[in-house]
Amino acid sequence: MEHIRMPKVENVRLIDRISSRKAALGTLYLTATHVIFVENVSETRKETWILHSQISSIEKQATTVTGCPLLIRCKNFQIIQLIIPQERDCHDVYISLIRLARPVKYEELYCFSFNPKLDKEEREQGWKLVGLNEEYNRMGVPNNYWQISDVNRDYQVCDSYPTEVYVPKSATAHIIVGSSKFRSRRRFPALSYYCKDNNASICRSSQPLSGFSARCLEDEQMLQAIRKANPGSNFIYVVDTRPKLNAMANRAAGKGYENEDNYSNIKFQFIGIENIHVMRSSLQKMLEVCELKSPSMSDFLWGLENSGWLKHIKAIMDAGIFIAKAVAEEGMSVLVHCSDGWDRTAQVCSVASLLLDPFYRTIKGFMVLIEKDWVSFGHKFNHRYGYLDGDPKEISPVIDQFIECVWQLMEQFPCAFEFNERFLIHIQHHIYSCQFGNFLCNSQKERRELKIQERTYSLWAHLWKNRADYMNPLYREDHSQTQGTLRPQTAPCNLLYKFWSGMYTRFEKGMHPRQSVTDYLMAVKEETQQLEEELEVLEQRLADLKKVQLNNRKENSKQQDHNTHLGPSTSNNSIANTPQDYINNVKSFPSRSPSQGDEEDSALILTQDNLKSSDPDLSANSDQESGVEDLGCRSPSGGCCLPSEDSGKDSDEAVFLTV
Amino acid sequence: MRNGCAGRNMEFAELIKTPRADNVVLHRPFYPAVEGTLCLTGHHLILSSRRQDNAEELWLLHSNIDSIEKRFVGSLGTIIIKCKDLRIIQLDIPGMEECLNIASSIEALSTLDSVTLMYPFFYRPMFEVVEDGWHSFLPEREFELLSSVTNEWRLSYVNKEFSVCPSYPPAVIVPKSIDDEALRRVATFRHGGRFPVLSYYHKKNGMVMMRSSQPLTGTNGRRCKEDSALINATLRAGKRGYIIDTRSLNVAQQARAKGGGFEQEVQYPQWRRIHKSVERYNILQESLIKLVEACNDQSHNMDRWLSKLEASNWLTHIKEILTAACLAAQCIDREGASVLVHGTEGTDSTLQITSLAQIILDPRCRTIRGFEALVEREWLQAGHPFQLRCAQSAYSNSKQKWESPVFFLFLDCVWQILRQFPCSFEFNEHFLVMLFEHAYASEFGTFLGNNESERCKLKLSQKTMSLWSWVNRHQEPSKFKNPLFEANSLVIWPSVAPQSLQLWEGVFLRWNRSSKFLDEAYEEMNNIIEYNKELQAKVNALRRQLAELETDDGMQESS
Question: Which stretches of sequence are listed as region Disordered (chain A) (predicted)?
């Protein structure tokens, strides 16, 4: 709290980005965890909550006659523009936010104060929801070829690896340690995915310290051991996910890539995915395009193309597809690395796993996948997503890209995933929110030292509790798309990668389909389930009634007996009420569905609204979801892109004049 | 649908040099190559394999062929056929002479110059006609609907003989206070005689949308008091109206030099003119050609794809058209003002705007029948020259000014709105794709001719079958039905932000990507909804049964 120079500012205006003439007047509050804007309109008092950890940049713009504008860009792609009447207040808010958005200690993060009112036991249960031992067992290891190694207990060998790693049985501790000394940051080859149908595996590591000519016997033995763990295969693929030029440049620094001549039976392959700096600037460029005010089609397409974003997404997908193909179709094991083996390697291994194994396409499986390939193998969440104040050059949207790859696959295979788009959006949100402890720090080691599991809550338990909101209605366990390996089209595949408006312009309410097919179908399915239950009750009732009538005819005089049958017939009254209820149900059903409403504007219900209701914690505790609501309230029509469409004449005139 | 060609081919016999070739191999994307026998009939190219099930592999209307190319490797000839529905197929034909003969036959048969030789004049339907589509959407019926809500309008037969305006239908709806004599005068003041007529009446507030062609003011500012009287008759006292000119101010000004022009403020003080430029003619055709070329190019990388998409300008046109339509709808619904829409001739961009505005405003236009009525009213009867515009498609080399995918763009715009409001339309994407196909090549007479006058002369309603007869027959109507549809009586405002507009993959990538997984998803969606309906019916039946039994029970008890 000591960083808050200005806890409250009145008469602040929140600007509608679509129509800058419209602004909501309200009060701005700064708290230890959030920026809160409360509108003055008395009946609604709309609130917009922004977590400090979501703030990516704050820009103080030149003061105008109306006040001092403050632009807040968020990591979840929300943009908030405020106008603060007094320059001095604006400066204080600005200085406070600069500090609040860049905490220096983990303890300042929201997860240490966030309390979902669960007891200790529930919290512990939450952390147990996703277990990696269980996952490796599911894959089929340990077995004759793979074993768990304790060589890294107490993080002796590699401090960014987990304590428990799976390695080929023939790889002795001596080999592992030897190999680790020949790899950047000692990230030696370890198992990421094992395919029990054909023994092929995906292993991951960092680059070898080969320089121009260095060799390491143990490293060569390690790769040999990986090949042997797949009996009958006579080579393994080594996939270097960097552009060849980058890898070659690394040789000068004593790093580099495997020389095929030194390793017996490897096939070496470059797949050019650019580094974190290129990706950061690519996202930056794409977001600039999204920020353009009423861009033309050409502005947008040119900007999108120049950002190179979709090209990078495709490169990651291509790498994943290559590996999945090697494993599933050729039955070959693959070793994947980049430089340090914690960014591109994580992306590519998880895309390949997702393509190979339907389990990872379920809600639970997807959590496991992130836990396995990202959290446990030391993806540097803190550095990449800027939880604590640090080097801005370390920040890069690495996992955002992976999440987008999943969305691109969902677009191509609409029945293959148990979860929906909202699930991905919420995960992305929470990777930055620091509301849960899962992603804190840069490695398992740091998390254990910080006692994360004792002091914070797990996101997975939270998402699991609300899983009904994340279901894909088209998913069926026995559907052909949920079986086996996904094989994305590769022919005109570049045409199939699309701009993900639902993510990058998720707060631009007016831009999205106004009716959500997912929500509609979920409502239908819910109703179907109720109907199934009712059908059963009705059938039972009918059978009972027939019996009663039969009895009545037989023993019409036996009053006593008749009374015993009154039991069901009293409940018949409740059944008699059911049609009424049900008709109400039928009536209310469409109103749950997206297209209906009492007045026109409610026809334009958005997925985001549902998003809000779907995650009570999210909306109750804060952040941008209320922001959506907020923006929505100021553009009641749901925003025809024509800026003027929903209100006063003046604005319409203005539009026409710009024509 | 596919009979009626055998035995009626005498007219075409001389065009068919080689009616049949064996061992022809057919290549299509996503299908294995098929060897079979190729047959040419007067209207079809048929390839049937000798598979056991004797399944016909290909049955292609000659009129669907946009262009053909031939290549030879030794004596093996290859014909590449590019269709108006954007599909590309390849036929390998052994024997140079056969190949050349077949190619020249196809060329001749796909470019017949007489309309009456077209397939619709030979086609005999295999389905039972429940309702003759030629009479489904008569102006009289439309006027009847209108009369139930307002009496300010009348149906005029001033154009009965097509003498006042050759591109208008015989009956048009005009303000009651304007007599036929005045209409005749206004017609002389408007390009092609297209005087302002009613396009849409907004029941919610009584505002209207009219359409016409440009006024012939010329450079000396010619005026016509009947013209202003006609459009002023649509205004409420003290209210202003909006004129949406689909040309830029510059283009409109230039038009004066050629005798055209626009409504000057001094002469139309109650009207506010807005210029909303929408592209026209062959610029649109070139855009289509570029887009399809980009979609078919297998070699490009991600970057070049986006710049080619951009360079085609197709989505820019979509955005322009939708924006203008939203503007018209906004004036009517939000501003409570009447609107007059026109460009130059009033047969192209004008109709795009007026028909899309109706989709936005009027829930009826989002039903299958309502959409058919809209196409009939705002395109066919309104005199959009389908035969000229749709003569060639994306593979044409002719570059004729009159060839233009105006209707195609309209359908794409509808698809964009459908995508944004997936539960508000009774029809689905297949319905729009079907209309696209039939506008370019069809066994039905609906899209033949350029206006009602030509259709009358061709006696299409007697000699050909209407597309609507086929669509509205009772069997399998579900093919075009959107399972998500829930009647939505509201105005739907689409977003025209570039982020919200997408390539219509169902048309442009239809032949070069597999839609298997998307089709499966559609089927899954259908199943979910069908199962729900089934259960609902069961539950309702049981409830009824129970209610009856309970009454019986009660009666027994009381007796």
Answer: 551-659
Q: How far is CA A411 from CA A420, B255, B277, in A?
A: 10, 47, 35
d(CA A530, CA A138): 35
Q: Which ranges of A358-472 would DSSP assign to H, the alpha helix?
A: 363-370, 381-385, 398-412, 421-433, 444-449, 452-455, 459-465
pLDDT value at position B9?
Answer: 52
Q: Which of A184, A141, A144 is nearest to A161 (CA)?
A: A184
Contact B447, B84 (CB under 8 A): no
What does the alpha-carbon distance between residue B418 and residue B428 come to, in Å, rounded to a whole number? 8
Does residue A489 belong to the interface with chain B, where contact is any CB pair within 8 Å?
yes
Residue numbers in B near A535 (CB within 8 A): 535, 538-539, 542
What would the pLDDT profile of A142-199 be if each residue is shown by its tens digit?
Answer: 999 999 999 999 999 999 999 999 999 999 999 999 999 999 999 999 999 999 999 9
Higher per-residue confidence, A585 vs B513:
B513
Element (H, E) at B333: helix B314-333
* Average pLDDT of chain B, as a whole number: 91
Q: Which of B316, B327, B491 sits opposite A297 (nearest CB)?
A: B316
What gap in Å lies between CA A7 and CA A22, rounded to an integer? 25
Instruction: Write the residue in A294, A296, A305 that is nearest to B307 by C-beta.
Output: A305
Using CA atoms, how far apart are residues B555 and B206, in angstroms rounded to an integer?
55
pLDDT in tens, B372-398: 999 999 999 999 999 999 999 999 887
User: What is the C-alpha separation between B82 and B428, in angstroms, rounded?
Assistant: 26
Query: Hey, is A28 helix, strand or coil?
Result: strand
- Which pair of structure tokens corresponds to residue B146? 């209108």
Token representation of residue B473: 């027959």
The region of weakest confidence among A338-352, A403-417, A631-645 is A631-645
Query: Cis omega (within 30 of 0) on the bond before A142?
Result: yes
Checking if the pLDDT of A653 tops 70, the result is: no
Average pLDDT of span B175-180: 96
DSSP-based three-state secondary structure for A598 = coil
Strands A23-30 vs A8-15: parallel, antiparallel or unpaired? antiparallel
Tell me the residues of chain B between 44 and 103 that have a Cβ less than 8 Å away from chain A: none
Is residue B558 very low, low, confident or very high in pLDDT (cuts 50, 70, 90)? Answer: low
Could you tell me which residues are beta bridge partners of residue A629? none
Q: Specify the range with the lowest mean pLDDT, choosing from A224-233, A257-266, A551-560, A631-640.
A: A631-640
Q: B442, B432, B419, B444: which is closest to B371 by C-alpha?
A: B432
Residue B13 structure tokens:
């016999």
- pTM comes to 0.90
Sign of CA dihedral A522, A524, A528, A530: positive
For residue A232, the model assigns a pLDDT of 86
- Residues of A known to be catalytic: 338
Least trusted range by pLDDT, from A325-334, A451-460, A607-616: A607-616
Q: What is the ipTM of this complex?
A: 0.93
**Residues in chain B closer than 8 A to A480 (CB atoms):** 520
A chain contacts of residue B422, beta-carbon cutoff 8 Å:
513, 515, 517, 520
Q: What is the dihedral of CA B269, B275, B276, B280, to 10 degrees?
A: 120
Q: How many other C-beta atoms are found inside a 10 Å radius of the C-beta of residue A503?
A: 17
d(CA A604, CA B331): 19
Tokens representing residue A128 in the block = 């147990």
The CA R_g of chain B, rounded to the nearest whole Å, is 26
Confidence at residue A650, expressed as pLDDT on a 0 to 100 scale: 33
Q: How far is CA A222 from the centre of its chain?
A: 34
Give me chain A's average pLDDT, please. 84
User: 3-state class of A612 per DSSP?
Assistant: helix
Question: Which of A311, A549, A646 is opposite residue B302, by nearest beta carbon?
Answer: A311
**β-strand pairing of A55-60 with B65-73:** unpaired
CA distance A81 to A96: 16
